[in-house]
Amino acid sequence: MSTFIGQFFGFVVVVFLVMRYVAPLIRRMMAAQQDAVRHQLEESAAAAQKVERADSEHAKAVAAATADAAKVVEEARVDALNIAEQLRAQADVEVERIKVQGAAQVQLLRQQLIRELRQNLGTESIHRAGELVRQHVSDASRQSATVDRFLDELDAMAPSEVVIADSVGAELRATSRDSLDAVVARFDELTSNVAADGLTAVASDLTSFAKLLGSEAVLAKHFSEPADAGDGKAGLAETLLSGKVSDTALEVVKTAVSQRWSSEADLVFAVRHVARLALLVRAERNNETGEVEDELFRFGRVLDSESQLNLLLSDHTSPAEGRIGLLDGVLGETANPTTEALLNQTIELLAGERADVAARELAELAVARRGEVVAHVTAAAGFSDGQRTRLTEVLTRIYGHPVSLQLHLDPDVLGGLKIAVGEEVIDGSLSSRLTAAQTQLPD
Known about the structure:
Shape: elongated
Largest sheet: 4 strands, mixed
Radius of gyration: 59 Å
Structural class: mainly alpha
Distance between the termini: 154 Å
Oligomer: single chain
Number of strands: 4
Strand order of the largest sheet: 2-1-3-4
Helix content: over 70%
């Protein structure tokens, strides 16, 4: 019984302790748990509401997106139709442009082809015509007939309005030209009775004086100074040259330095010119004028065809002795002594001029001494005496001066003649007519 009571008491104590200390703790824990469950339930309800609202918003967003997508699709469809229409319109315009451009290109190519065909046909025609002309003029009588036809045309020409002026001193100023005329007149007066050998000495003395002026610039400047008195300059020349040159040459020099000159170069030119005249007058006294003229013109043509020789003779910076030696080698022993002396003098006194030009001017000066003008005639072959006489008469009528013919043979002219008098050229050659026909072909 005591055991039961003891156990019961123990049980009561345990129950008391449980009720006293454990039960409140459990109740608090349960209350807390209940609160937590309640809170979770409330949060779950709120979350459910949020999910419901989200679903609603999602549905609205989906509906709006579907509407926007439909709108975008519709707008894209409309834009695609517009773009397709624009592309079709642009394509039509481009097709039309390509058609127009293609038609223009075809027309251009057609015109170009026509031009090329015409040009080729024209070139071939002219080439064939040239061959026919060459075959035709290969016969001497037919070639001569082309000259006669040109002479007929030339005979029908009116007199030329070209003024044939004296080419000597043409580049001098008026003062120097007047002085040159005075020196030449004095030379003619002094040499009227001088023998050929005396003229040779005069030419040599004047050549030496021209070289002196070229090497002594101060002396040349003094002699050409227009402000200085002529008598004083003549006295100085006499002091320098008396006993060293012939009396005739001294008088010519005194006359030259007494004149008024525009420059030193004009004085030197005058002295050189009179030195040439001395040798040309020698040729006249020896009845060699025609031979000398022909040889001078022939030598000029040699220089025209031999550019290297012309270059060597024109080089005034090289020693004169070497150039004269080269000239003598070219002339050989067949040239007239007067021709050789004239060319030696000319080459020795070159001061920058071309040898071929100087030789041609020298030959034309020889012709001008006889009051004639030079007509340079180019022909494919020589012509008869009758044709030469007729051509001389016709040109004399046209230019109002006696004419000296200089014939140049050039087979390339084919037929007819090409004539140059001064600056005027009358081209009646067959080659020039073929060339003119070719230049008139379409481009």
